[in-house]
Design brief:
Helix content: over 70%
Number of strands: 2
Radius of gyration: 31 Å
Structural class: mainly alpha
Number of helices: 12
Strand order of the largest sheet: 1-2
Length: 207
């Protein structure tokens, strides 16, 4: 009887289908897949934790060593400082890349190309050994008298070289990130903001 009613139903009145029942087998399959993946992960963690070849006691001893903890603190400090300074310098480079002055665009583009094309380790080694190539850093007129000079080793210590190298490298990548974000703004949003009296840079920041 139900089959006869389904066949005689008009096309304008389709049969009601419970969506939850239609997707129930797929949902169960997803749950089974997640349970299997979790079981495999737990098994892997159990094997690694109970494997004597890893010598976890030795690992825990050296991870809590004072030298390792000091190195961790220095690494986190270098990361924070280079991220902040690199973001600020990257903002300046991004603005230069979007500038109407061709000189600023070419200088910023050359900077970004150089620091993104060379390995970071090479840049750090070059900065660390800069005293070999330039024993002194001086300030004065080109081809003229020198006003003041410093020894390169006094200015560029290992910590300073790391900060400068990480900052310059981070700025090259951050400049492209900021420039891509500015270019993704819809021109109509900029026109709307400028119509309300905002300047070009304030319109970019608001968008």
């Amino acid at each position: 009887m139900n089959a006869t009613r389904s066949l005689n139903a008009s096309p304008s009145q389709p049969m009601a289908i419970d969506v939850r029942q239609a997707h129930l087998p797929i949902d169960k399959l997803h749950i089974v897949m997640w349970l299997l993946a979790l079981a495999c992960l737990l098994r892997l963690l159990w094997m690694v934790a109970h494997n004597e070849a890893f010598q976890w006691s030795v690992v825990a001893h050296w991870l809590s060593a004072p030298s390792v903890l000091r190195g961790l603190g220095v690494t986190l400090g270098l990361t924070a400082i280079s991220m902040v300074l690199g973001s600020l310098l990257g903002l300046v480079l991004a603005i230069a890349r979007l500038s109407r002055a061709s000189l600023f665009r070419y200088i910023a583009g050359l900077y970004i190309w150089f620091f993104r094309s060379t390995p970071l380790l090479v840049q750090l080694i070059f900065l660390y050994n800069m005293a070999t190539l330039f024993p002194e850093i001086s300030v004065g007129l080109p081809f003229g008298p020198t006003w003041i000079s410093w020894k390169t080793n006094d200015l560029i210590t290992p910590l300073t070289a790391a900060i400068i190298g990480l900052t310059l490298n981070e700025a090259a990548y951050m400049a492209e990130i900021i420039r891509g974000g500015l270019l993704s703004v819809d021109p109509r949003q900029l026109e709307t903001a400028q119509a309300f009296g905002a300047s070009r840079w304030c319109a970019c920041a608001a968008s």
